[in-house]
Design goal:
InterPro entries: CheY-like_superfamily, LytTR_DNA-bd_dom, Sig_transdc_resp-reg_receiver, WalR-like. The chain has 245 residues and is α/β, with parallel strands linked by helices. 28% of the residues lie in helices and 32% in strands. The chain has two domains: 122 residues, Response regulator (Rossmann fold), CATH 3.40.50; 104 residues, OB fold (Dihydrolipoamide Acetyltransferase, E2P), CATH 2.40.50. Strands 2-1-3-4-5 form a five-stranded parallel sheet, sandwiched between helices. The protein is elongated, with a radius of gyration of 21 Å.
């Protein structure tokens, strides 16, 4: 996998170069000191991945991302920045990942592994690769009327499947995502538990398991008014799990 590193700060650029050089199967093909230079170099070198700073003189990272998106085979884009407040803009720019400086080797390695699923048009989602605890998402992204909304996984109460979409219930409301419950269960298997064929509940928010008059069971979660229906096949396992919480 061919990588281009772009950062206007020499020290930051050198650090990324050193990290890339330690990774098997990754080749550093070029460096750039600003967005315009990155675009020009990318058109000639055709990297698979660009590690891009955001705040740079002349042409910043977002402007460069827009230019790269118009190339014949757009590279996967991983933003590496010192600022947390550009995450939404980064995902609107179809970034594969958003890493905060100083970037660690593990974080960069996980992001580059995800980049292997790049299809030349858009970043692969975490549901297209087998996630592990070290490289899984910290946020779920959803397209809403406000644009891309990022929901911290730690704030999610449950995932509820309804036909082709998944409702993500979090502390401030809910959003819809186009993923599968099975992929979410695999990715977050130690954070959520299956309580029904169409529902995953967050372990940290489980409050009580109740039996309702018709003999069915429902699960109460902290901070959520509505209860989740628990299927009979999952009741015993859920009880055992709750005893260990």
């Amino acid at each position: 996998m061919r990588v281009l590193v772009c950062d206007d700060e020499q020290l930051a650029r050198d650090r990324l170069v050193r990290l890339v050089d330690t990774m098997d199967g990754i080749e550093l093909v070029a460096q750039a000191a600003n967005g315009r230079e990155a675009v020009e170099v990318a058109r000639h070198m055709r990297p698979d991945v660009v590690l891009m700073d955001i705040r740079m003189p002349g042409m910043d990272g977002f402007e460069a991302a827009q230019a790269l998106a118009g190339t014949e085979v757009p590279p996967a884009l991983i933003f590496c920045t010192a600022y947390e407040d550009h995450a939404l803009e980064a995902f609107r720019a179809q970034a594969l990942d958003y890493l905060l400086k100083p970037v660690s080797r593990d974080e960069l390695g996980a992001a580059l592994e995800r980049a292997r699923s790049w299809n030349g048009r858009r970043p692969a989602t975490a549901t297209t690769v087998e996630a592990t605890a070290s490289d899984r998402r910290n946020h779920i992204s959803a397209r809403t009327h406000r644009g891309i909304e990022l929901v911290p996984v730690q704030d999610i109460r449950y995932f509820l499947a309804d036909q082709k979409y998944i409702t993500v219930r979090h502390g401030s409301g809910e959003v819809l995502i186009d993923e599968t419950l099975k992929d979410l269960e695999t990715e977050f298997d130690d954070l959520f538990v299956r309580v029904h064929r169409n529902a995953l509940a967050a372990l940290k928010y489980i409050e009580s398991l109740e039996q309702v008059p018709n003999g069915h069971h429902q699960l109460r979660l902290r901070g959520v008014a509505d209860a989740l229906v628990v299927s009979r096949r999952h009741v015993a396992g859920l009880r055992r799990l709750m005893q260990r919480l």
